[in-house]
Amino acid sequence: MTLKYSNNLALSLCVFILALIATLTTKTLAQQVAQLAELNGRNARAVDVSTSSWHAKFIPQKLQMHMDTTAQVLLELSELPLAATFEVLSEIPHLASVEHRIPADVINSTTRSWRGNITINALFLGSTKAYVRRVNTTERAAGTLDLTIIRKMRTIDYIFIGSVALLVSLLYINFGAALDLTVLRSLLRRPVAPLIGFLTQFIAMPLLGYGLGALIFPDSPEFQLGIFFTGVSPSGGASNIWAVILGGNINLSVLLTTTSNFAAFGMMPLWIFTMGQLIFDRANIKVPYQNIATFAVSLVVPLAIGLAIQRWSPRLTRMLVRLLKPISTCLILFIVIFAIVTNFYLFELFSWQIIVAGLSLPWLGYVIGWCTSKALGRNGVDSLTIAIETGIQNTGISIFLLRFSLPQPQADLTTVIPVSVAILTPFPLLGLYICKRCSERGIVEGQVDASQITSTHRRVIC
Question: Is the dihedral of CA 312, 315, 317, 320 positive or negative?
C-alpha cells in the first residue's frame, strides 16, 4: 500500500509539474501574441503620424559595429517644423549611445531641412535602433537606423571554440571506444529504464526548456533559444561521474548517456526544426539547417573512429575507456572556466531571470526524472540514476551548437544560458552527496545503531 501510494503521489506530482508548465507556456504565448498585435498597431499609427509630418534618413540605414567602438553616420532631416529642436537617441541606451541635439537655429528655414554627421558609441552586444525625436514631445521621425553590436573575435576566442570542438570530438571517440555492444544488447532486452530515460530526456526536457524560455524570457527570443537548445541537448558526461559518486547504477548511466547521445542525432534536429522554428521566427533569425546538419554529421565521425578503435586496437580501447571520465570532467570544467575567463562580459548579462533559468532547467529535470521513474515502479537506485541523467545536460554541445549555428550577436547572447546551467547544475547533487557522507559518517561513528536500520532506511541512504 505504501509503495502504491508513493508511486501514485510521484505520478501526480510529475503530471502536475508538466501541466503547470504547459499552462504557463500557453498563457505566456497568448500574451505575447496579444502584445505583439498591440505593438504592431501602435507602430503602424506612429508611422502614419510621422509620415505626414517630417522625415529622417540615415545613411547607411543599417550599421554593424563592434563593442567599445565609435562610428559616424550621415543624417538628413526634411520637411521639419520651424522653431523646433530635435534630438537623436537610441531605443536601448545601454547598448548604444547616440545622443545628438539639433537646435532650431541650425535648421535651414528655407528648405526646412538639416544635414550632418552624428556619432554613435557602441557599448554592449545586441540590436537597437537610433531615431530622431522632437524635444519635449513623443513625436518621432519615420526613418530609423538599425544598429547591430557584436563582439570582435580575438585570438583567444578562436582558441576557445577550437578547444571545445576538439574536446567534444575526443569525448565522442571515447564514447565509441567504451560502447559495449554485448552489455548494450542485454540491457535493451528489457528496455524499461532506457525508455523512461528517453522520455524524460527528449520529451520532458525540450518541453521544459521551451516552457521556461517563454515564461522567463517572454521578450527575449535570443535567451529563449539559449535555454531551448540546452533543453534539447543530450545527457552530459558528468552524469556518469555523479552516478558513481552518489551510488547510482553506473551500467544504466553509461547506457542512458550513450543512447541519449545517439538519439540526439535525430531528436535535436527534430525539436529545433519544429518548436525551435517558432523561436527562430520570433527572433527574426533563419533556422540554420545546413549548420545544424553539418554539426550532427561531424559528431558521427569521431563516434565511428571510436568504434573502429574498439574493433582493431583493444589496448588503445582500454586506455580510452579509462580516460572517458577524466575527459568528461575536463570538458565540463574547461567550458565553464574558459568561458568565464574569455567571456567575462557574460556576467553583465546575468540577471535574476538568467539565474532562475539556470536553476530551473536542471533542478526540475531532476524532479521530473525521479518522479517519472518512481511512478513507473523503478527502484531507488535506478530512479536516482535516471534523475541524474535527465537533469545534467551536455552544455558543451549546446554552447558549441549555438556558437556554430547562430549569427552575431545572437551567438554570444545565447551562450549565457548554457553557461549558467553548467554552473548551477551540480549544487543539488553536491548537497545530496554531503548528506550521504554525513549519514555514512554517523553510522561509522556509532551515532546510528546499524542493527536498527531497516531496508527502507538503507534505500534512503543509498
Answer: negative
Q: What is the pTM of this model?
A: 0.62
Q: For residue 121, what are the β-bridge partners? A: 70, 97
Burial class (CB in 10 A: 0-12, 13-18, 19+), 381: middle
Grid coordinates given for 6: 508513493
Q: Which residue in 422, 420, 429, 418 sits closest to 385, CA to CA?
A: 429
Phi, psi of 55 (to 5 degrees): -130, 155
Give pLDDT tens digits for 350-375: 788 888 999 999 999 999 999 999 99
Which residues, at least 6 apart from 83, have a Cβ–Cβ distance to it below 8 Å? 104
Residue 274's nearest CA partner among 183, 210, 339 is 210
The residue whose grid cell reads 540605414 is 61
The number of beta carbons lying within 10 Å of the beta carbon of residue 271 is 23
Residue 73: pLDDT band with limits 50, 70, 90? very high
Bridge partners of 130, per DSSP, are: 90, 145
Angle at 235 between CA 333 and CA 287, to 5 degrees: 95
* pLDDT of 278: 83
